[in-house]
Recover the amino acids of this structure.
């Protein structure tokens, strides 16, 4: 990892103003309240929430996922959908327990350093939203370039990007992971 | 063939026809066999909920595949039968990954068949003779999987329904994912635009196999393993039994004077179950009522309710209890109960908190102290839950959040500082910063309620109330200091005592897993740790038992932790089958796995009234009936007695 980006990583982690990113438009992801309302109100419909993304006529980019078993899957993502919506639509094994409202950490995905930096540059203040950071803190196998799939919107600039899904190791309790209490 | 497809109808049928043709070509399967494979195409989606997951359909289907009278070894293409004990997150995730893993295994069956052009036409199936690895060959013995989830309560979802705080509805969204397992994998077909052939073909295969009922899932609610059916009976009915029953039967205890004797000392587990409408914890309500609204306190409010809530004036609905609540322990459960108590009705009215609970909580409680023996760096809570407390006042709940600066300073020992270092310290560092900010900004004291986080306080004993010797009145705490190396600091007593008044005490220091009836004899339960003994999810010893979730690893972790856990257990199940261990255990011929049919018969014989998935759907619909709800925003009003739940589920319509 190159020095400047690591420095920024630390800055992002420890020193960003807590409420700075919670107001105003955010380039990444959906605003939480609007999504949450939509989903909680639709709780009893059988239509799955991830059908809400852009339609089949949206422009597409090719994204590659490195699966937990090290195989690779390249899919065609629609510009404007979240990475989580895209994964569910195309059968990529990414969980989304809270259905994409940034209330769990199950859509954890690892970016390349380049893409991570690029997305950080596109944020308003060089920091992730507070609640995404809070949820990432609980993610299994957290890395410096971890993000939540529900908070990443597919853009045209992502053509060819590679995303790594966290690996499930056998005996994951003896190799250093401490489950977060709840 | 066309006939089969017509069943599915509409545009989906055309698409399926195309896929089917291409798949048949690619798998080199003869048309006749394809027809046979698709004979069990499920009915259209609109009526699936009421038919495919019913026991009747399953029961009708299963024997034709299973031929129970045949020995397993003479029927190489039988179905794998799996029972999962417990319908909480760990059980559901295990069901999900087990069925998807089996689908993948069968896909690789197809892939091997494709690779070998000598595809067989006969009943033996395309791939039986083409096994690459020995392990895979063992797996070919199964042509599908039937998973049955058994649950002690009538309703599924475990702690998602009865543990997750009602003001966290987004966390409960996962229920929909679990419910969707009962509909079908990949049931939404939306005209894929995938570009690369490998991925799209794998999706196609996935969908077709799913449609072919390779994997079925059934729910048996109100079945108490250990009582309704013994563990050993279950083991002999099923090829594989997965224990996923969690740690909700017992608590860790403080073991200090007054804990067991005094009324008003409850475990957080009981309190959480009560405010979530758990049918076995209704008795907690009157205790909470007496503690929060004792005569002396409610007289000050001007209306003595005497434990019986017969006053329905709006002023009393918002009355704030002057009771002092002490929560012992500093995990997220402790923060949950503190938040619920503070918020009261105004913060819970739009949630699924039962109305009977709101009638007791009313406007909330004026003082809640959350007490921990160790410092803020060692707290087990996570930042999201702490941040919620810091925002209660801004969000209009009239609750101040207090942290004492001096306690943070006392907790910042050299070892604590070291614990914050490095990437692993990232979450803690952000949390400490948040707590420090909260300690700095305790300027607004105008709120009528408060929640206080107290650190380095060790509860030594509970003292009775002055006016009621049977009820708790205070908690005697000793100030502690931290001594020791990073991550091994111990709270040592300083002889300095502080007495915290308490009308209600909630002990929130963790749960304890308990063995099922019949486990002692098998010697598979670790009493010390409160978990089932296992290696990567395989229960130790020669048996067909597996374990997942809290009863495997202990009562820690968030819902998502069960994903990795389930994957590990599923990997162990697959290994158990592919290594030939399952066959070896069944080789003596004494065992025939009757699975779902056998279970249904046995429960019928024993007179156990079990709840099927469609029956639970009736409960679900009734709870969400608008006539039952306080407002449009309230997601559901739960039925809070077992009798009420069973009545709805079992009534004819």
């Amino acid at each position: 990892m190159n020095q400047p980006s690591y420095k920024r990583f630390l800055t992002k982690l420890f020193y960003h103003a807590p409420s700075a990113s919670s107001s105003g438009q955010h380039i990444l992801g959906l605003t939480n309240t609007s999504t949450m309302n939509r989903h909680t109100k639709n709780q009893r419909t059988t239509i799955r929430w991830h059908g809400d993304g852009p339609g089949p006529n949206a422009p597409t980019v090719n994204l590659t996922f490195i699966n937990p078993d090290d195989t690779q899957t390249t899919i065609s993502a629609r510009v404007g959908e979240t990475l989580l919506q895209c994964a569910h639509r195309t059968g990529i094994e990414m969980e989304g327990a809270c259905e994409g409202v940034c209330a769990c950490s199950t859509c954890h995905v690892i970016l390349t350093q380049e893409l991570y930096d690029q997305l950080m540059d596109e944020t308003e203040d060089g920091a992730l939203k507070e609640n995404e950071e809070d949820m990432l803190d609980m993610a299994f196998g957290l890395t410096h370039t971890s993000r939540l799939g529900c908070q990443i919107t597919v853009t045209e600039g992502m053509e060819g990007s590679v995303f790594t899904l966290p690996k499930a190791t056998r005996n994951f309790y003896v190799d250093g992971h401490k489950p977060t209490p709840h | 063939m066309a006939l089969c497809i017509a069943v599915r109808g509409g545009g989906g049928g055309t698409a399926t026809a195309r896929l089917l043709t291409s798949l048949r070509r690619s798998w080199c399967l003869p048309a006749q066999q394809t027809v046979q494979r698709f004979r069990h195409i499920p009915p259209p989606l609109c009526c699936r909920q009421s038919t495919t997951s019913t026991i009747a359909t399953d029961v009708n289907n299963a024997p034709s595949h299973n031929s129970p009278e045949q020995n397993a070894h003479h029927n190489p293409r039988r179905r794998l039968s799996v029972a999962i004990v417990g319908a909480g997150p760990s059980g559901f995730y295990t069901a999900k990954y087990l069925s998807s893993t089996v689908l993948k295994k069968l896909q690789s069956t197809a892939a091997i068949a494709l690779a070998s052009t000598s595809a067989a036409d006969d009943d033996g199936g395309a791939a039986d003779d083409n096994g690459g690895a020995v392990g895979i060959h063992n797996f070919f013995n199964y042509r599908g999987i039937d998973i049955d989830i058994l649950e002690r309560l009538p309703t599924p979802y475990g702690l998602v329904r009865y543990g997750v705080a009602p003001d966290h509805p987004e966390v409960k969204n996962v229920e929909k994912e679990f419910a969707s397992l009962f509909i079908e994998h990949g049931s939404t077909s939306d005209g894929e635009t995938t570009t690369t052939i490998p991925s799209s073909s794998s999706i196609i295969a996935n969908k077709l196999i799913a449609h072919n009922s390779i994997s079925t899932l059934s729910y048996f609610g109100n079945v108490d393993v250990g009582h309704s059916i013994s563990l050993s009976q279950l083991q002999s009915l099923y090829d594989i039994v997965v224990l996923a029953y969690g740690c909700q039967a017992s608590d860790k205890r403080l073991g200090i004077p007054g804990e067991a004797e005094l009324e008003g000392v409850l475990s957080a587990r009981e309190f959480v179950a009560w405010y979530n409408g758990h049918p076995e914890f209704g008795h907690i309500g009157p205790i909470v009522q007496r503690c929060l609204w004792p005569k002396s306190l409610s007289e000050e409010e001007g209306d003595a309710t005497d434990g019986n809530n017969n006053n329905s004036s709006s002023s009393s609905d918002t009355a704030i209890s002057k009771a002092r609540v002490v929560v012992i322990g500093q995990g997220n459960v402790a923060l949950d109960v503190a938040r619920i108590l503070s918020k009261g009705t105004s913060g819970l009215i739009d949630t699924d908190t039962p109305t009977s609970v709101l009638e007791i909580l009313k406007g909330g409680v004026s003082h809640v102290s959350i007490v921990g023996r160790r410092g803020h760096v060692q707290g087990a809570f996570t930042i999201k839950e702490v941040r919620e407390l810091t925002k209660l006042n801004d969000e209009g709940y009239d609750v101040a959040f207090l942290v004492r600066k001096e306690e943070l300073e006392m907790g910042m020992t050299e070892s604590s500082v070291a614990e914050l270092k490095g990437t692993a310290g990232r979450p803690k560092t952000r949390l400490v910063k948040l707590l420090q900010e909260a300690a700095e900004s305790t300027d607004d004291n105008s709120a009528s309620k408060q929640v206080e986080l107290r650190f380095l306080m060790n509860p030594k004993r509970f003292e009775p109330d002055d006016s009621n010797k049977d009820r708790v009145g205070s908690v005697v705490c000793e100030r502690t200091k931290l001594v020791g190396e990073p991550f091994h600091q111990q709270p040592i007593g300083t002889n300095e005592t502080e007495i915290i008044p308490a009308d209600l005490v909630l002990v929130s220091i963790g749960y304890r897993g308990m063995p099922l009836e019949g486990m002692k004899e098998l010697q598979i339960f670790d009493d010390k740790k409160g978990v089932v003994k296992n290696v990567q999810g395989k229960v130790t010893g020669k048996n067909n038992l597996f374990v997942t979730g809290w009863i495997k690893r202990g009562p820690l972790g968030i819902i998502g932790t069960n994903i990795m856990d389930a994957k590990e257990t599923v990997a162990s199940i697959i290994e158990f089958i592919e290594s030939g261990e399952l066959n070896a255990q069944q080789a003596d011929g004494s065992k025939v796995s009757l699975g779902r049919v056998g279970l249904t018969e046995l429960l019928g014989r024993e007179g156990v009234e079990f709840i099927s998935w469609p029956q639970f759907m009736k409960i679900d619909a009734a709870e969400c009936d608008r006539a039952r709800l306080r407002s449009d925003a309230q997601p559901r009003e739960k039925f809070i007695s077992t009798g009420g739940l069973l009545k709805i589920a079992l009534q004819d319509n």
Notes: Confidence is low (pLDDT under 50) at residues 1-74, 117-134, 185-211, 298-315 of chain B. The first helix of chain B runs from residue 2 to 8. The two ends of chain B are 36 Å apart (CA to CA).
